[in-house]
């Protein structure tokens, strides 16, 4: 009977409260509370959808209530400062301090165990340098008519629709002040991107939003109208993203507002579909021809593509197409599987795609092996938020880094994990005007700018300590990782790095290249015959 205790007590309390209310008016509170609990408990017993509520009338709701605030309880009271879920309290605190231009020094030594496996550091020099300027840049598309000098730290792809209008305003204004770029995401260029005038990288996904025809295909005319505006500095073709590679999406018709309709070039009242693949190309060679055509149509702006690495032979097919045709992208952005600013299916978040370190190494090694690395710039994204993480990523093989969630924290994100619910408590990842209107774009733009500036100052200090002048000098020999309690290895000795032109001479002694390079095709993304045979063996 303990299962019904609260319900029974409410039934007993009601007449008692009603009687006592005749003498003391305050007891009307007891009447109201007990009556509400009786109604709730009776409904619990009569409904058939939840067995728990039928077995524990009224009491089950206490369980639901505690469960609903479980993430907050863990985040604020249970989790340690270093527990990455997905970002640790220490990581968030550092971003908040830098975005508010507060002191970010740490007292009394590190909280990390320097003898724990996977602990990493950058080796310092006995001949440190003195670098005055922290505005580190990389030139992208030097042979284009309109090359772009990009910061080594920029805002990763986040669309209007995923983020609110005021969040887009703040990010773009922060980027304008700091002279770094703001990737539009595949949702195209909204009025809020244009309003502040910050540099844009226009991301074009499989839905061709902002450059699509009436049937959802690519429209050259509409592409030219957007790509030739001065604010757009580069064009990025999104092949896949870290959060949900190989997965399309649907924005329900009810959510296609007039603003989103105008921004994306889709009709209102109809589901807005992002297919899982592009219709403008079907093979690696066709992809590179598409990239070359976009460069021409944009008036000579740098054009590249973003991808999360999956099947190795598909990436190798693109690389072989570069080698065979001489058609090169100006840049490639490698998105790690740990990326993702909004929401994605659980299995995709946890188990699809190659993590950024391995993906970046594969892309970098392939380009080095084909002697193309000096002609193609490489960016990387995937849980990058601090100066050390930028340094490590560049040391692995990148030229610059992008961050999404780091800049969301700079906007005031508290990691409530409600991005998909339209109930973001800070007005960032929501389209509810009652929430996002309270986000002050001017104040948050200052924080975005501060975070970028202070992070690059910290990067400069790391470089000076290592005896370097520019992030481009960072190599895998500078970063050291503990691989056991008694063994440490530099990234240079931990990973296999190809030598320039090695792939042109032979297949290197590297497992992935050994297994898939020879069979990769520039005319198809299809698996090699032997892989297809393995698949077919189960159906015999």
Secondary-structure-derived class: alpha/beta
Sheet of most strands: 8 strands, parallel
Low-confidence stretches: none
Number of strands: 15
Taken as a percent bin, the fraction of beta residues is: 5-15%
- Oligomeric status of the shown chains? single chain
Helical fraction equals 40-55%
Number of helices: 22
End-to-end span in angstroms?
59 Å
Shape: globular
Give the overall pLDDT as a whole number. 91
Give the radius of gyration.
Answer: 27 Å
Biggest sheet: strand arrangement = 4-13-12-11-10-7-6-5
Summed up, what is this model?
This protein is α/β, with parallel strands linked by helices and 540 residues long.
Highlighted features:
12% strand; 22 helices; eight-stranded parallel β-sheet; 540 residues; alpha/beta; 41% helix
Care to describe what's here?
The protein has 540 residues and is α/β, with parallel strands linked by helices. It has an eight-stranded parallel sheet. A three-stranded antiparallel sheet has the order 1-14-15. β10, α12 and β11 form a beta-alpha-beta unit. The chain is globular, with a radius of gyration of 27 Å.
Which SSEs are present, and which pair or pack?
Blueprint: H1 5-21, H2 28-46, H3 51-55, H4 59-68, H5 70-78, H6 89-99, E1 120-122, E2 137-140, E3 148-151, E4 153-155, H7 165-178, E5 182-183, H8 191-196, E6 200-204, H9 220-227, E7 232-238, E8 249-251, H10 258-264, E9 272-274, H11 284-297, E10 303-307, H12 312-325, E11 331-335, H13 346-351, H14 356-369, E12 377-381, H15 387-396, E13 400-403, H16 405-411, H17 433-436, H18 441-465, E14 479-484, E15 487-490, H19 491-494, H20 502-505, H21 511-516, H22 529-536
Helix pairs in contact: 1-2, 6-16, 6-18, 7-18, 11-12, 15-18
